[in-house]
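R.M. (postdoc): so does anyone remember the format we settled on? I'll just put the structure tokens first.
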């Protein structure tokens, strides 16, 4: 019995020592964690709207003319560089459930210089490096010239680059702040206080499609848009090197174009999108307007060969499906497409019968799409 009690006492002592050791390690880890104070960086992005848009401000922040808050769906990638080092890979902000979700961590009191682009996907590969003879506080070089991942002539995503960074005290600052291009410094803060505003500029041109239905035709038929695809007959892909410079304008240098097999890219539907009924041409309710954007490399030989393909169903006035999976293919008018960075062309596409609707009932079931 005495031996049992002694063994018990020894076991209890060992258990207490082991518990103390575990608690010491845990406390050490907690202390180390607090000392590092790593936190997730939260994002409020703004993008330069295309030329025809008016500026908009939704928060207590002053914006350059033509900028408006960016609401997904593209992911935004950032490199949180220090003066001398860049991270091994890009980190992302993902737009999920109508909010930005962070995969970007920062450490309290650490100085970062933030560079990056959108979208982040498997088809785009970027390498970051310092400018010659400089460190990352003076800018960065973003190279999109990997031979297997050259930039396609047409994209469904808005290909853009970060052109400015603003550190803010909270997601909704009380004081008015000024967002300025060509500034990239961000200093990590304690947990819960890491909010950053980003400026984004477009590197591709944009073509926006406003879909409507001829008023007379819409009284008899309903058009439900199911798919929109865009391609170009241009058969080249492009390398690109973007040089960001602190306190200076960035430069975008396109390399020698390379042979590429063109194909349609799907603009609609995208994530969380479904087929949608097109409004009558006379409908002025902005919420019912169907606007779909496509993006293309900012070159004339791309813009002059754009082809749009639309797929839709036709229903009669009682909602019965009359024609399924109709397709309309249009080569876009070359004299109306604007080419250049931050340039957007808006085209109106009106679903129309080929002949007078009162004279051609079959035409009611399979109308054409006219580019206005």
């Amino acid at each position: 019995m005495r031996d049992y009690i002694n063994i018990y006492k020894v076991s209890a002592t060992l258990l207490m020592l082991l518990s103390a050791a575990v608690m010491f390690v845990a406390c050490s880890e907690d202390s180390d964690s607090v000392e590092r104070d790593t936190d997730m960086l939260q994002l409020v992005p703004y993008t330069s709207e295309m030329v025809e848009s008016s500026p908009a401000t939704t928060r207590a922040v002053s914006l350059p003319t033509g900028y408006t808050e960016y609401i997904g769906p593209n992911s935004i990638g950032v490199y949180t560089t220090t003066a001398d080092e860049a991270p091994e890979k890009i980190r992302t902000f993902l737009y999920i459930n109508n909010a930005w979700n962070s995969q970007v961590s920062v450490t309290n009191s650490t100085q970062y210089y933030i560079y990056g682009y959108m979208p982040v996907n498997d088809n785009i590969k970027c390498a970051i490096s310092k400018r010659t003879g400089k460190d990352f506080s003076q800018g960065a070089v973003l190279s999109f010239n990997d031979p297997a991942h050259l930039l396609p002539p047409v994209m469904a995503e808005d290909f853009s680059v970060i052109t400015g960074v603003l550190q803010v005290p909270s997601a909704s600052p009380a004081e008015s702040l000024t967002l300025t291009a060509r500034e990239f410094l961000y200093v990590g803060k304690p947990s819960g206080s890491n909010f950053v505003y980003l400026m984004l500029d477009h590197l591709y041109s944009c073509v926006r499609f406003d879909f409507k239905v001829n008023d007379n035709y819409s009284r008899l038929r309903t058009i439900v848009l199911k798919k929109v695809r865009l391609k170009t007959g241009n058969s080249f892909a492009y390398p690109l090197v973007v040089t960001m410079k602190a306190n200076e304008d960035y430069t975008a240098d396109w390399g020698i174009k390379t042979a590429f097999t063109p194909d349609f890219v799907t603009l609609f539907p995208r994530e969380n999108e479904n087929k949608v009924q097109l409004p009558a041409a006379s409908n002025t309710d902005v919420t019912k307007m169907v606007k779909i954007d496509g993006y293309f490399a900012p070159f004339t030989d791309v813009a002059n060969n754009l082809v749009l393909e639309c797929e839709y169903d036709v229903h009669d006035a009682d909602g019965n499906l009359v024609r399924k999976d109709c397709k309309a293919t249009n080569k876009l008018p070359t004299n109306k497409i604007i080419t250049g960075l931050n340039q957007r062309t808006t085209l109106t596409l009106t679903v129309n019968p080929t002949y007078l609707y009162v004279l051609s009932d079959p035409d009611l079931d399979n109308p054409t799409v006219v580019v206005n």
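R.M.: ...and that's the designed sequence above, right after the tokens. Also worth knowing: Residues 1-35, 50-59, 355-360 have pLDDT under 50 and may be disordered. The radius of gyration is 28 Å.
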